[in-house]
């Protein structure tokens, strides 16, 4: 479904990533690992169409995703709707004055009828176990609460592919466990999951496969979670990136 061949992206003169090959199929759960600054966020933003490749080729279900495609608003709508992107910093993602409005914002933009919007808001509040927060101001919430609201607002759009950029960063064990449980639930419900992380142990129970970036901004390993379980020293390395 998501295929990047020899992909490269640079910010002016700064390399984001280069010579990257990935292939994610429907229903996969994969993790992008690598040290800080190695290219994880840049790759995720490219997958969802925020950036277009400068070299190489990105195809989504055999459609080439390039500058020309991304400029054509008649085509990008259905493409963008496939993805739910949970940004690393929830505070830049949340801008409404109540949690309910935050979750309703996406479905309202899809032009759904009010009863359907209300249904989605209630379903997402329940799934994320945040009914108690419904009238709170997102900006005033704790980091963990904000992350749950950000995930709820993304899921309200019912995306096929859920992308989470370092979702566990800065969260307490309680919130990490909650988010792990929710991501597992989404995967079992058939969603495709792409997570970035630099702690293997945090994503160990979540993903089937791991892509590993080196400091040189390219993916140097692709390895299944089962293979990794036989490689304690590599797990140690991945846990201390
Ligand atoms: N907006 C930007 N402008 C210039 N360079 C950037 C920008 N964002 C990221 N970079 C650079 O691109 C490289 C990859 O960054 P990033 O994808 O954010 O890494 P990661 O998510 O793995 O920490 C880094 O060298 C980083 O400094
Ligand atoms: Mg990042």
TrEMBL record:
Keywords: ATP-binding, Cell membrane, Membrane, Nucleotide-binding, Translocase, Transport. It holds the Pfam family ABC_tran. InterPro entries: AAA+_ATPase, ABC_transporter-like_ATP-bd, ABC_transporter-like_CS, ABC_transpr_CbiO/EcfA_su, ECF_ABC_transporter_ATP-bd, P-loop_NTPase. GO terms for cellular component: ATP-binding cassette (ABC) transporter complex. Its main location: membrane. Residues 2-240 form the ABC transporter domain. It is found in: Cell membrane. One of its GO terms (molecular function) is ATPase-coupled transmembrane transporter activity. PANTHER family: ENERGY-COUPLING FACTOR TRANSPORTER ATP-BINDING PROTEIN ECFA2, HEAVY METAL TRANSPORTER. Belongs to the ABC transporter superfamily. This is ABC transporter ATP-binding protein.
């Amino acid at each position: 479904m998501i295929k990047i061949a020899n992909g490269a992206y640079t910010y002016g003169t700064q390399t984001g990533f280069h010579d990257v090959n990935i292939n994610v199929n429907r229903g996969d759960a994969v993790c992008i690992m690598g040290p800080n600054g190695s290219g994880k966020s840049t790759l995720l933003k490219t997958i969802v169409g925020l950036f277009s490749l400068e070299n190489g080729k990105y195809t989504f279900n055999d459609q080439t995703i390039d500058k020309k495609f991304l400029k054509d608003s008649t085509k990008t709508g259905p493409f963008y709707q496939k993805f739910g992107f949970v940004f690393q910093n929830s505070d830049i993602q949340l801008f409404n004055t109540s949690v309910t409005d935050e979750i309703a914002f996406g479905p309202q933009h899809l032009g759904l009828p009010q009863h359907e919007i209300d249904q989605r808001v209630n379903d997402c509040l329940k799934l994320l176990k945040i009914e108690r927060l419904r009238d709170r101001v997102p900006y005033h919430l704790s980091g963990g609460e904000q992350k749950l609201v950000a995930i709820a607002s993304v899921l309200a759009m019912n995306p096929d592919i859920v992308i989470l950029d370092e979702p566990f960063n800065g969260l307490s064990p309680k919130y990490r466990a909650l988010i792990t449980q929710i991501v597992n639930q989404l995967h079992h419900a058939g969603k495709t999951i792409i997570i970035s992380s630099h702690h293997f142990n945090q994503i160990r129970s979540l993903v089937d496969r791991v892509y590993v970036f080196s400091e040189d901004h390219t993916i140097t390993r692709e390895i299944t979670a089962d293979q990794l379980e036989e490689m304690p020293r590599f797990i140690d390395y991945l846990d201390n990136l």
